[in-house]
Every structure is written in C-alpha cells, then in structure tokens.
Amino acid sequence: MVQLKRGNCTAGIDKGELISFIFEEHEFIHQKGSPGWRSADTEMFPIIGPLNETGFRVQVPRGSGAIQDQHGLLRELEYELISQTGTSVIFRKEYEMGTRVRNSKFPEKSDKEWLFWPYSFTFEKSFELKEDNLEITFTISGERDMPFMLGYHPAFKLHTDSPTIFTNDRKITLDEVLVVGSRALQVENCKSITLKDKKDIKIEIEGFEHFMCWTEVKNMVCIEPITFYPYAIAQRELHTGFQYLADADAVFKVTLKV
C-alpha cells in the first residue's frame, strides 16, 4: 500500500484504489468490509451504466459493437505503479484493442465470461496530497475518435445519522439517495458538491459535467463525478452519451477538499 502524508492529511492507496483519506484523525473514505460496498473507489470506463437489456453489447463506430458489463471493463484490469513520492503517486492501466478480459461478474451476475473493446488505450490515475486537499487526476490517451464515458466512483464514510449533500442550489438528504436505489440520484450540470457530516468534505471536478449519488445503506454514500448520466435513456441508446478522444490526451480532475 502507498501511504501519502502532508501536514494533517494522509491518504492510503492500495493498487490504485483510494482506501483512506484522513484529516485531523477523521476518516472520510468508506472502509472495505463495512456494510454497503466491497470497494472504496473505482472508475467507470469506457461506459457508465448497465447493458443487461442489450446482451451486454454497446454500439461503437468500429466493428459490430463491444461486449461490456456494467460500468465497463477498466475495473477488471490491474494498475501498475509508475512513480511515487511522499506526497504523490501515479498508476497506469493499458489495454490493447480486442484483448479479451475476464468478467468478474460471471457467472453469478452476468452470462458474459469475456469482455472486449475494439480500441487501444492508456489510462493513468494520479494522486497528489496537499495541505488540505487530495487531487485525483485521470489521463486518457489512445486512438483519435475512440468513444468513451468516464465516471469516478468514490465511497464516503458517514459518521452521523443525518448527513446532507449540498450543491449551489440544492439540498439532498440521504433518504432521497436511498429512495432512488440502484439507478443513482442524478445531479446534473454541477461542478462541486459538499457532503456535510461530522466533518465536511467538498468534491470539486474538472472535465466531468455531472454527479450521481448512490447508496443502499446509511453508513456510506457514493458521490460520483460523471461525464454522462446513463439511466435517463434506454440501454440501446447508451452510445449517445459517448465523448470522443481528440489528438491531445483527455484529462479529468477530482479534488477532495477538507
């Protein structure tokens, strides 16, 4: 595990997964093994959302489509540690077009044992710890015009019975998130969210356009920056939410401010 420290802040990263962010002895990240979710954070790429209604196939410009499971195949790949200092670290995943990737949801939750994507790409995830914030940067490089969606899926530990999520013009209770269930609550056209709990944390984004919020328990909540909210359309139309790589790398940032 990589341990970053600066001032009163520490961050723990295990194989690219943010498993701890502590400020003045307060843990902000959901802990594995606690009720709610088996992970602490993950990425949704190159698609966001489920594809069970379309046979786990998504329409792309190249070939006859791609086989993907919920939230894409990136989470099935392992990060490689590229560089590290006391306050920063960079991880990378690389994928070669057409490579079959074993689906961890098979056979219990999916009938597709293998997933593939008809484009090559490199995906970097970096962490930089500052005095009162943690900056997480995602850099995507690959073939020009490769379609993709990106979502970041961190889970925050809750310490009180009545946490509240605030945007510039909206107040969201935990009960509102719970009612929406597995679809996740949409928070559109939003660049920052503050989770008010025992200690507050602000999530600011660059490159992403929206958030969605999800939980099925009261001890954690996922506040997820996304490029596209997939649940407002039919799964057969999911391709309409793609962005496309240009000549330059696509860069997205999430800053956790305490």
Question: What does this molecule look like?
Answer:
- Its cofactor is Ca(2+).
- This is Aldose 1-epimerase.
- This protein has 258 residues and is mainly beta.
- It has one domain: Beta-galactosidase, Chain A, domain 5, CATH 2.70.98.10.
- It has 1 helix and 25 strands.
- The strands form 7 sheets. The chain has a 9-stranded antiparallel β-sheet. Strands 1-2-3-4 form a 4-stranded antiparallel β-sheet, with no helix packed on it.
- The longest helix is centred in the last third of the chain and has 7 residues, at 174-180.
- It is globular, with a radius of gyration of 18 Å.
- The chain starts with a strand and ends with a strand.
- The mean pLDDT is 96.
Strand element count: 25
The helix tally amounts to: 1
CATH topology: Beta-galactosidase, Chain A, domain 5
Q: Roughly how many Å is the radius of gyration? A: 18 Å
Subunit structure: Monomer.
Keywords: Calcium
Cofactor: Ca(2+)
InterPro entries: Aldose_1/G6P_1-epimerase (IPR008183), Gal_mutarotase_sf_dom (IPR011013), GH-type_carb-bd (IPR014718)
